[in-house]
Design a protein that fits this description.
Bound molecules: iron/sulfur cluster
Structural class: alpha/beta
Helix content: 40-55%
Strand order of the largest sheet: 1-3-2-4-5
Oligomer: single chain
Shape: globular
Number of helices: 24
Distance between the termini: 56 Å
Amino acid sequence: MRFVESEHLLTCVHCGLCLASCPTYVVLGTEADSPRGRIHLMRALEEGRREPTPDVIGHLDACLGCRACETACPSGVPYGRLIEAARPWIETHRSRPVRFARRALAVALTSRLGTLPLRLARALPGIEPLARRLKLRWLAYAAALPRPHASDPLPDILEPAGPPRGTAVLLTGCVAGALFDDTNRATAALLRHAGVRVVVPRGQGCCGALGMHLGQGASARRQAKTTAAALDVVGADWVVANAAGCGAMLRDWAHLLPDDPHARAVAAKARDALELLAELGLPAPTRPLARSIAVHDPCHLAHGQGVREPVRALLRSVPGVELRELAESDWCCGSAGTYNLTEPAMAARLAERKLDRIAASGAEVVAAANPGCLLQIRAGALMRGLAVEVAHPIDLLAAAHGVGPATR
Ligand code: SF4
Ligand code: SF4
C-alpha cells in the first residue's frame, strides 16, 4: 500500500452519477477533474501505474474536498477519505520550497499570531473601497472580517438560568477563535438560552482540519490529539462546533486517531451547534428580523455532516424572516479550507458562480454556517459591489433571541 487501502478505491464502479454534482468537473468539463477521474488517478498512483507528475498532482490539487460526490454516489464511495489519504502522500512529491511554504501556511493559519496581519489590516480606515478599487482579494478577505464586540475571554463555564438539560463542550477553534469570537460567544449564549450548561475548555486549539487540507497529516494529527484531550470533558453530553469544517473533522476523529480514546469519545459526542439547538428547541424569539434570507449550505455541513434542515427550521421560527430559495445552495463557494489560498483562480470562479445565484435569489441576507464560507462570500460580494449581508445563522439567531455579544 502506498497511501490508501485499495478496497476503498475499488468501490467506485465508474457509473458517473457523481459527475453533475462535482463543481470542478462542471466548470472545467475534464474527466480528470471529476470524482471518477480522480479516483482513477489515485488508483493508478496506488498501483504504481502512474507517477505523481505535476499534471496528475494538479488534477488532485484542484479537488475542493467538498464531498458533494459522496452525497451523489449510490455505491457509497468514501471519496473524502480517499483524497484525505492521498494528500499527505502527494505532499512528499512536491519540491522542497513548495513543501516548506505549505507547512508554513498551515502553521500561520492555525495560530493567533499568524492571523495578526489580517486582523491589523481589518482596522485600516477605508479598507472596503480600497479592496474594491485595487481588486486585491486578500484585502477583501481582511475587510470581510467581523469586528469583535468583546475582548475578555469567554468564561470557562456558563450555567443556564434553570436546571441544565445537559452539558455541551464548545470548540472555539483556531481561526474561528481568533477571527470569529463573537460567533463563539453567540453560540454559548444560545446554548445557555436553550437550557444547556456550556463548558469552554482551555488548552484547545486546531482540530486538524486545515492541516489535513494542506496534506500535513502528521502535524494535523498532533493538533487533533491535543485538542481532543482538552475537549474530552467528563460528564459532557455533546461536543459542539459552529464551524462546519471543524464539526465534520471532529466527527471523523475516530477514523483519524483510532487509537486515541479522547478522540473517539469526542467523535461520538460531536454535534453541529445549529443541529443541537434545533433538536433541543429554543424559547420563542423576542426580536423579529424583517429580512429575506437565503441559506448557503457549507459543504462540510451538508455533505460532511448531513445537516441542512435544522438551519432553515431555526431561521423560519424567527418572526419576519422570509426564506428565499438559493439555487445550488450546497455547491462549494470556493473557500474549501485553504483552497482559496492554494487554488485562487478556481476559487474565484466558484465564488462568482455563488454570487450569481445569490443575486438571483434577491435575498437581503445570506446565512452561511462556516467561517471560510462567510469570508469567501463576503469578500466576493465586496469586490463585486453586491449589497448583501453575509452572516452566520448563529449570529442571526442570537440577535433574534436578544442574547450574545451584539445585543449587549
Ligand atoms: S464515485 Fe460513485 S457515483 Fe462516482 S463514478 Fe464512482 S461509483 Fe459512480
Ligand atoms: S470532493 Fe468535490 S471537487 Fe472533489 S471530486 Fe468530489 S465533488 Fe469534485
